[in-house]
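Give me structure tokens for this 467-residue protein.
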Amino acid sequence: MSSRQRGHDASECSDNVPMVYIIGAMSMGASSIQIVAKLQQGLHDWLVHQGVSSDLSVLLTTLAGVIIMLVLAFVIDALAELIIRKLIPHIVNHVVDATRAELWETALQKNTLARQSAHIAAALVVYFMIAEMLAAYPSVVAVVRNLIEAYLILVILIAVNAILRSAVDVMRQGGRLTRLPLQFIYQATQSVVWLIGGILIVSVLFDKSVGVLLTSLAGMTALLILVFRDSLLGYVAGVQIVDNDLVAEGDWIEMPEFNADGKVIDIGLITIKVQNWDKTLSSVPSYSIISGGFKNWRGMYDSGGRRIKRSVPIDMSGISFCTPEMLARLRKIELLRDYIDDRVTRIEAFNREHEVDESESANGRRLTNIGLYRAYLLRYLQHHTAIRNDMTLMVRQLEPSPKGLMIEIYAFSAVQSWVEYETIQTDIFDHAIAVLPAFGLKPFQYRGSGSVYSSPADPDDANRQLN
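Here you go.
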């Protein structure tokens, strides 16, 4: 059945059955006091006629009236729940659009709004009947009414809380406002509602004005700040997080001090829950986002690229000037042919202009195998379909170290998904290492317990070194 059809059926139902129930409930409420009063008077007269003392008769009559009142309250509670259940679809279909009506109906049913709201009607029945039922004990009536008023405030707060939870559920399932920290907004609103409700309940129970209570709370500011420190800090931090859009559900954040490295799944009033990539959960205090440092990877996802920053270690003993034979062989590499021709032309012109004695390799300018290797990697990346050419792209030489000469690739992958990104990065460095022998270079690595082993570029050299 479609939402629109359900709305039509609910409208018919609300125009017939619920109105009958409402009129019946109002009539029952209006006449119930008189009926119960007559029953009490009749029971009192009968007990006195049976020889029961007047005081005991009054007590028994009062107890009987209270029992009847409670039974009636239970009946009103059940009837009110039925009415509210039938009214909810009608109200929802008239307040929200048809596409979201089903979500609201499901959420309100899940959070038992009808059940919580029905208690209000039952409490009102007791509130208006209690004076007549306890007419013989006027001093008790005021106390009981205060208790009922406090209970009414409590059930209203519970009903409001059910509506708030339903709104959060609808917003999450409906796919709207997904960037907002809904759990934080819910908890913050809930805290304010319960704070106001708590003040009203205390005011009713102790028969004190709200102004007097607020004055008393102001005098206890230091104690309240100490007791609710985390909540207050979390509230202030949450407001800043929302206002500055620092963190949102679904963001990938890193906070090593809290062992948090993963996806934000919930932003609460006091804590932020993070599901780490190893599927464990970390809880981060909300105020630590403001007071401490953290890394949010949202910018990476928004940019459309993911950085590749890794190095290939080169054995420096293999670095040399390029011989004519090496250049002739490397010209067969399509990505290097134009580069080599251009560089050779420029170098030869420079050496002729400066009358360089080319019999000594140290004189003048010459191409090196490491330079051609860097040039090749750069062109290889520029022609790679998974690399962003509109972002920073370079192959650079880092400072030499005991681990060799590091040739670093700094680029951005067009794919951000972790598994695919790692595959692309691995393929690039597989190629970068495998092509080293073509340039007469050797990868640098450790072998055994502290001994250094450099993999030769030539297979025959490798066999000789291993033997």
